[in-house]
Amino acid sequence: MTRNEQQKSHSKNAAGGMNKGKIVVLAIVAVGIAAAAVWTRRGAEAPAAEAAAGGGALVAVTVPATLSEAAKMGERAFNAVCAACHGANAAGTEAGPPLVHKIYEPSHHGDYAFEMAVANGVRAHHWRFGDMPPQPAMTKADLQNVIAYVREVQRANGIE
After folding, report:
1. Residue 84: half-sphere exposure toward Cβ, Cα within 13 Å
2. Nearest Cα residue to 96 out of 51, 150, 43
3. FRET pair for 144, CA 20 to 30 Å: which of 61, 119, 121, 151?
4. What is the rounded CA–CA span in Å between residue 36 and residue 11?
């Protein structure tokens, strides 16, 4: 074997080893992502399983002692349009998830997510309640007040 052939053979073996290393790293990353997804999903579904077993609210909610004027109006609109599924004080029901939950914290579901959900509906992705239909009866002004209400209740429960 010539020196040139030996170098090509050595380079080929080194590249094969490097590819195997990359594959192992990618496999480890993929397993980590899958584990995180399962862990997150189980955390989101636990309240639903508890509600199915015992009925009622999915989470315990501390109601703020006082609400801003916008949040008071939002509470009325929430009770008229949203509470049938999302429960009194946004605690969830067997028909819809609690909005007082870490999944809906502002850093994960910002106010715009609520606006889009009301306008377009939402495909089920964190919970197993089914899809949320659009809510055409909710005006933009009422929605802003509902968001104020939900955020104030979330803050009273340590969700910021």
Report:
1. 6
2. 51
3. 61
4. 37
Question: What whole-number distance in Å separates Cα of residue 83 and Cα of residue 89?
Answer: 8
Tens-place pLDDT, residues 125-140: 889 999 999 999 999 9
Looking at per-residue confidence, does 12 or 142 come out higher? 142
Q: Which residue stretches of the chain are H helix?
A: 3-54, 69-81, 83-86, 111-120, 140-156
Mean pLDDT of the 64-78 span: 98
Residue 19's pLDDT band, with cuts at 50, 70 and 90, is confident
Residue pair 156/64 in contact by the 8 Å Cβ criterion: yes
Long-range contacts from 77-81, C-beta under 8 angstroms, 24+ separation: 77/138, 77/142, 77/143, 77/145, 77/146, 77/149, 78/146, 78/149, 78/150, 81/135, 81/137, 81/138, 81/142, 81/146
Q: Determine the residue type at 17.
A: G
Let me know: does 104 contact 149? Beta carbons within 8 Å. Answer: no
